[in-house]
Amino acid sequence: MAKPDYYDASDCTTHEKGAPKFCKKSEPGEGAERSCAYDGARVVLMPITDVIHLVHGPIACAGNSWDNRGARSSGSQLYRRGFTTEMLENDVIFGGEKKLYKAILDLAGRYSQARAIFVYATCVTAMTGDDVEAVCLAAAQKVAMPVIPVNTPGFIGDKNIGNRLAGEILFKYVIGTAEPPVLGEYPINLIGEYNIAGDLWGMQPLFDRLGIQILSCFSGDAKFDDLRYAHRAKLNIIICSKSLTNLAKKMQKNFGMPYLEESFYGMTDTAKALRDIARELDDAVGGLEKRVMQDRVERLLEEEEEACRARIAPYRARLEGKSAVLFTGGVKTWSMVNSLRELGVEILAAGTQNSTLEDFYRMKGLMHKDARIIEDTSTAGLLAVMAEKLPDLIVAGGKTKFLALKTRTPFLDINHGRSHPYAGYEGMVTFAKQLDMTVNNPIWPVLNAPAPWEKGEAELAADVTAAAGHAETFLAEDISLSRVKVPSKCATVNPQKNSPALGATMAYLGIDNMLGLLHGAQGCSTFIRLQLSRHYKESIPLNSTAMSEDTAIFGGWENLKKGIRRVIEKFRPAVVGVMTSGLTETMGDDVRSAIVHFRQENPEFDAIPIVHASTPDYCGSLQEGYAAAVEAILESLPADRDALQHDPSEAWTVPGQVNLLPGSHLTPADVEELKELVESFGLTVLTIPDLSNAMDGHIDESVSPLSTGGIPVDAIRGAGRSAATLYVGDSLARAALRLKDRFGIPAYGFSSLTGLAETDRFMETLAAISGRPIPEKHRRWRSRLTDAMVDSHYQFGTKRVALALESDNLKTLTRFLDGMGCEIQAALSATRTRGLDDLPSENVFVGDLEDLENAAVDADLLVANSNGRQAASKLGIGAHLRAGLPVFDRLGAHQKMWVGYRGTMNLVFEVANLFQANAREGQKLAHN
Hints:
CATH superfamily of the largest domain: Nitrogenase MoFe cofactor biosynthesis protein NifE, C-terminal
Distance between the termini: 44 Å
CATH class of the largest domain: Alpha Beta
CATH architecture of the largest domain: 3-Layer(aba) Sandwich
Strand content: 5-15%
Helix content: 40-55%
Low-confidence stretches: 1-19, 923-928
């Protein structure tokens, strides 16, 4: 293929004599990071926001590259659409010129708002001989916009070549084709500034305050017409090293326009850039004897530098002495050396993908003499440098990101894929903040801690002992001096509490063929059924003693006995679960005695157990009612030796049998996952209660008025023979101790099983109980979780979160989010319980959802049940993680699984995606 007339081989430095490897042409078989000429042209031209970028070639070039750079626009989003002729096999054989011509006419008609069409040649269309320039010329006669050929197929060179050829195209077809409507006293052009993550918007305020007009920016946030005015500027500022130096040279030659090469990364380089620009503009406008612009710059620098130093000081204090390996492209390498040095970070090694020999020498001059230059930029070469230098972080482009994260090394992306602007003084503060968040993120100590199978015997024994003593330790905690604030207002607004009887109903639903009976007015049971039906999307079996005015006055014993008799006669349940309401507790009904009297009066029903839990509405919330019911179940149903007619010659404890007590905050999917984890160690698990088969959303062939699918009563009767009891959720500590006190069963407690360290301890405990090693599949899931955590931690860092949940769930999610780097702005519990004092937030209190509205005014994420949607809407918080009960405005709440390695990974991704979606929405609103 003939080179275009504007191709100048002298501009290419990839063969410079004496250059290190990264300045030389890639060799076959190397794993080089550099890209091709097509990509280089695309980097320069595609940030032009209001034009059509049409790629002429098969699907690969456009399909793999459209809208994958972080160049931002404050106006048109047309540049983000992927246009391609998508050449197929027949087009390659017979030629694609007609297809290209039709595509140009079609797009010009359908996107009439476009100011121009850029048509990119690719390797295939260059090889087949399609004359892109001729087609563009012919099509331009038919459409009302310029049609500009970009003849830069990938095989003609690397990314630098494409950058430079794009500059030639702009000079030939765009610059100087129109006059600016307004021309200020100090007009400049920025060349090689692509507004990655909004960098331009960090520089723009500085220029505005100085009275400097950015006439054209090549090509961040650029409009096509703005670029046409570039010939009227008084000065060109090259931002991105050599990518468009040829364009600046041509403009100097043709328009007499001087140029400077500057950087706006870091305080030192920003100050130098502004001083240099001021000097040149003073010379251009008033001569060297006048210092109008220079005086303005000095005043601005005095103000900005002092403020910037004060703002980055806290970050510098934490970054001082850290070490980094730097690997990026062009100007960002030597410019970032200065930025890192200003924050006290030592550069151990640096390399670059697309730089010239001049960039290399400049970078080398800024670094310590012992710092290494990375010549082998392949994956193997970079891994070797990381293994040799053991840096605290890697600062590089996105292609290196996952290589670094796989080695559990903190990584900061400074190339086109990043989400944060780093230019100017505001950008320097952002850079310091992101660097600090990257290096000092709390996930690194957790990720770099030894896995269970890497720990020594003493460490494993200590972890298992802590789990075994959890219940006693937790219940010994004194809450009388708690720092947790309690509500002082007279009225609760938008309560986040649910009734204790609702929690007890949930526990009863986890026993097969059980029927719950609420001793109270019939409205209480109706509301509970409605609330649980909305959450689980299931019919809820629950009956009521239907207390009336008369029975409320004269006592409810008879109503209770009648109710028990009726449900047994009519439904024949395996067990009846009785719970109380605020009404009957206030009346003083002695439910326990009433049940004794019922037994005496109805001996024919002796075979059907009756479980009673005290659940007055005014004591606690859902969690407390659930725990009370679990305690009542374990007090009533497990049988002793005599009741089971156990043979004294046989061992009482069943080898490998364990009890699992899941907390009220766990979903049916959570419970099922925990059962599978326990069973994977060869253990037999009795789950009390078991919602995993009862409220998991399945359809049975027959519908029963009783709870179905939970643990059978006969299985619970054997719970006293288990070798251990595992409970999840602090609220069940007492229930576990009931089994320990009665049967001598060791109790192992876990406040949470969401999180890496929490799951590690659970695995260690199961290994100790079973005497088996941790299965390989769990090791794999742990590896996946650690990978998910490093991949996602950027979305979590410094995000502000407010939570309103039942206390077990609050502890679980607060500690998880804090461990991922979030700032816990407020943690609201439904009730005041032990353990809340230890939550990682200065603002922990008991409250309602109105309190949440007051506490979450600038939160990035709200964690609450569906009733929290009002607070989220009022405060404009787009990220609302539904958790707890009820969740009725989202489907599948009961199928959410957030426990264990796999469940924690699910939660990591779910929250990260919420943050990402909310960030995109915020960007859209900010620039509409």
